[in-house]
Amino acid sequence: MNQTRHAGVWTIEDRCESALHYLPFNVPYGTGALKVELDFDRRGAVLDLGCLGPSGFRGWSGGARQFFVIGADSATPGYLSGEPEPGTWFAVVGLHKIPADGVKYKLTATTEWFKSLLMPWRGR
């Protein structure tokens, strides 16, 4: 298992700079599945979630989901299944609605070697 974490506070200034922000994480060779989780206080804030792999677009769920899973044989609706290619990936966070005092966030990207480990993530 490999994890990358990003945390901070999105502000109105961040939203003015760009509506989309790209948070990198590494997918090692041989990865069977990956999961990205975005945690933030939904009272007064709307953050969108999407994903880019090294070859491009892998999915978008907007503000409908707080996590997604991509595996060789299955993926969260709105995301493309397929073996996760090694390299730098990006969780795309859309700053749709930011309260005046900002919003704290935590993003965790987890990679697993075996696609069978995808199953426990489905229940969340």
Description:
The chain is mainly β and 124 residues long. It has a single domain (2-122), classed as Sandwich (Jelly Rolls). Helices cover 9% and strands 53% of the residues. The chain has two helices and eight strands, in the order βαβββββββα. It has helices at 12-17, 118-122, and strands at residues 2-10, 20-27, 33-40, 46-53, 56-62, 67-71, 87-97, 103-112. The strands form two sheets. Strands 1-8-3-6 form a four-stranded antiparallel β-sheet. It has a four-stranded antiparallel β-sheet with strand order 2-7-4-5, with no helix packed on it. β4 (46-53) and β5 form a beta hairpin. The radius of gyration is 14 Å and the shape is elongated. The two termini are 18 Å apart.
Cα-based radius of gyration, to the nearest Å: 14 Å
Element pattern in H and E: EHEEEEEEEH
Indicate the low-confidence ranges by residue numbers. Answer: 116-124
Strand order of the largest sheet: 1-8-3-6
Structural class: mainly beta
Q: How far apart are the termini?
A: 18 Å
The CATH class label is Mainly Beta
Largest sheet: 4 strands, antiparallel
Count of structural domains = 1
Question: How would you sum up the global shape?
Answer: elongated
What's the overall average pLDDT, rounded?
Answer: 92
Note the total helix count. Answer: 2
Question: What is the topological layout?
Answer:
Blueprint (H helix, E strand, L loop, with lengths): L1 E9 L1 H6 L2 E8 L5 E8 L5 E8 L2 E7 L4 E5 L15 E11 L5 E10 L5 H5 L2
Antiparallel strand pairs: 1-8, 2-7, 3-6, 3-8, 4-5, 4-7
